[in-house]
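Review form for a predicted model. The reviewer records the input and the model, then writes brief findings.
Reviewer: anonymous (R2)
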Amino acid sequence: MTGEKIRKKIKSNGGFSMLELLVATLIMLLATSLLAQTMALGLQQFRTITKRSKADTLCSTLSIYVENELAYAKVKVKDGQVTFTSDVHNMGPDAAFYILESAEDEDGTVVTSGESPVGIIVETSDYYKNYVKEKNIGLQPAAQRRPYYSIVGEGSYKIGDRSSEMLAASMSLKNTSDSIEVTISVYDTDGETVLSSNHFRVIPLEFEKSE
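Model under review:
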């Protein structure tokens, strides 16, 4: 249909035929569907980029903390477990890194050279636990401190400020003749897909092995 015929059709009282209206409606539906799919794909891509960026930042922050803590510590290895005494955060003797499998986990799993569960990486010692216990005396449960030192806040594991989805981390410590090999990985919300990982070697200030 030429432009002249279209103008005549618009000026006439006949309007468009049913077939022409159906074709126009179909074109609009196809365009709307294509736009919706493009927006969904763009949103998914944005979420993926955001998660990887968040995971890289979390992995880097955890790595820097662990490296600094071990580099200036007196490290002791016994039965495959790495403990250390560091004055950086006043944890007292025999501090260790733990994995909390959830924010409500009160026991945690000590980090060793074996396979690590995924969760939140924290640090504690008997000295720190007793210190927190004394501080909590007389306080309501909601105001009590937990017996772990959080390396990074819980918000650092969240995908977004308003999101309940959380990343998870794992950690392993393997001792060599004069150093500690550290592997830290950050996982997607499924706890299986690795989004970021870092492997590094730390030479402690003092190193004692009794295996």
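Findings: The chain has three helices and ten strands.
Further findings: The helical segments are 3-11, 18-71, 126-136.
Recommendation: see findings above.
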